[in-house]
Write a structure and sequence with these properties.
58% of the residues lie in helices and 5% in strands. The chain contains six helices and two strands; from the N terminus they run H-H-H-H-E-E-H-H. Strands 1-2 form a two-stranded antiparallel sheet. Strand 1 and strand 2 form a beta hairpin. Helix 1 packs antiparallel against helix 4, helix 1 runs parallel beside helix 5 and helix 2 packs parallel to helix 4. The two termini are 29 Å apart.
Amino acid sequence: MIEKTFLQSALKEFRDYKALGDKTFAQLDEKDFHFQPNEECNSIAIVIQHMHGNMLSRWTNFLNEDGEKQWRQRDDEFEIHSFNKEQLLRLWEEGWRLVLNTIESLTEDDLSKTIFIRSKPHSVVEAINRQIAHYSSHVGQIIMLGKIIKGKTWQTLSIPKGQSANFNAKMTNK
């Protein structure tokens, strides 16, 4: 029972973070994907490239192969490429499709298995939690960059500032 609840919860978290990214992208223009506040910060394009590479590596043959595939070119994920918005969104969708399909395919029995990431053993639960944390941090970066880029025209993805009491009252009255 708890295993099924965990898988459903993980799937919901992954979908929720993907949706936050999707809502951010909907507010951005082509050029916005390549904005870097400074040399040390990644652009949204680079974050997408990195997440895509990580997702393909971690979730391809999730239960049977090390999550750090030999074919992965991690350093290249952080290089500037000339991908346009459409190409970046294809990478985003491809990565998330693999994550979500893999989680949906897992059984309760799979949660007791051990997988490897960079030769280090992880329970399947640990590996899933690790990726939820990893992807949520990057989606947070995407949102922050979106807020910086859009400034006053940013459309909030959660409860607007100063509206918590109204929101809570509406939730209580449901």
